[in-house]
């Protein structure tokens, strides 16, 4: 959707630039912070293993966690520590290097998440 379709004020001589979504001054706007903190995932936690596009090396993926980005990064750190391997958090998906599906599921269940094993 282009800006002209939304209409409205984008600059004011009183406050300067304004947010096109909430119409507040950019200094007062918290739209991006709310969007970043919003929970991603559908709370149906799925644990899978993938090797596609990784040069034959396997990666354990955790998807569907309804956590904000900070909590997701902290959980990713706990899972990597429990498995003794590296990994990352990308687009709401926790990636742990290696085949650690069973170990990851144990840690998730201890923390109260109902994890389900999917895929091969």
What does this structure look like?
The chain has 120 residues and is of the alpha+beta class. The chain has 2 domains: 8-37, no CATH class; 45-117, Translation Initiation Factor Eif1. It is 30% helix and 22% strand. It has helices at 3-6, 31-37, 69-83, 101-110, and strands spanning 11-12, 16-17, 45-50, 59-63, 87-90, 93-97, 115-117. Strands 5-6-4-3-7 form a 5-stranded mixed sheet, with helices on one face. It is elongated, with a radius of gyration of 20 Å. The chain starts with a helix and ends with a strand.
Describe this protein with a few key phrases:
single chain, 120 residues, alpha+beta, Translation Initiation Factor Eif1, 2 domains, five-stranded mixed β-sheet, two-stranded antiparallel ribbon, 4 helices, 7 strands
